[in-house]
Write a structure and sequence with these properties.
Elements (H helix, E strand, L loop, with lengths): L1 H5 L1 E5 L5 H15 L6 H10 L2 H9 L3 E7 L2 E9 L3 E7 L8 H17 L3 E6 L4 H6 L3 E2 L4 E2 L5 E8 L7
Helix pairs in contact: 2-4
Length: 165
């Protein structure tokens, strides 16, 4: 594993990465997120996770940070408005290796550098709540349904001011 960890590299996603992003996100979502969603909500979610949707979001300025082990895409983090984490997915095979934490720190640092963001929000799927708790997020309300019907828990992370943040 240390050889793999040493080869982890990250970069900002480009429009031509949309297909690979869509494949990874759809595969992970199908395994971990969809079981907790109503069928029609899951179908709509999967449609949004296609290459076309990711390409459009990248072209519109949404930032996606990608994690690779060698040439293999193993993780993706998408941030909207430099403050709302819309996706953080790590390939099932590579979960539990610290990739999500590294990807989150990279995404967070980018938003801090670009916009000075001190408060981050997200809507966590049921299975992701423990991961986000480990990353320092706290629930800001009970599990509920978004306007699109997605079952999730709203969470936030507020950074302290100053150099120790």
């Amino acid at each position: 594993m240390s050889g793999e960890a040493d080869s982890l590299r990250m970069r900002l996603g480009r429009p031509e990465d949309a297909r690979a992003i869509g494949l990874l996100v759809r595969r992970v979502a199908r395994r971990w997120v969809l079981p907790d969603q109503p069928r029609r909500v899951g179908l709509a979610m999967m449609a949004r996770f296609g290459a076309k949707g990711f390409r459009e979001r990248i072209l519109a300025g949404q930032r996606f940070h990608l994690a690779f082990l060698g040439a293999r895409l193993v993780g993706v983090a998408g941030m909207r408005d430099d403050s709302h984490l819309v996706q953080l997915f790590v390939s099932t095979r590579y979960q539990g290796r610290g990739i999500a934490g590294k990807l989150w720190r990279r995404t967070m640092d980018d938003a801090i550098r670009r916009a000075g963001t001190r408060r981050f929000t997200l809507n966590a799927s049921r299975c992701a709540v423990p991961v986000y708790l480990r990353l320092g997020f706290v629930p800001t309300g009970p599990e509920g349904r978004s306007p699109k019907g997605v079952v999730s828990t709203p969470m936030a992370l507020t950074l302290r001011r100053g150099p120790a943040a």
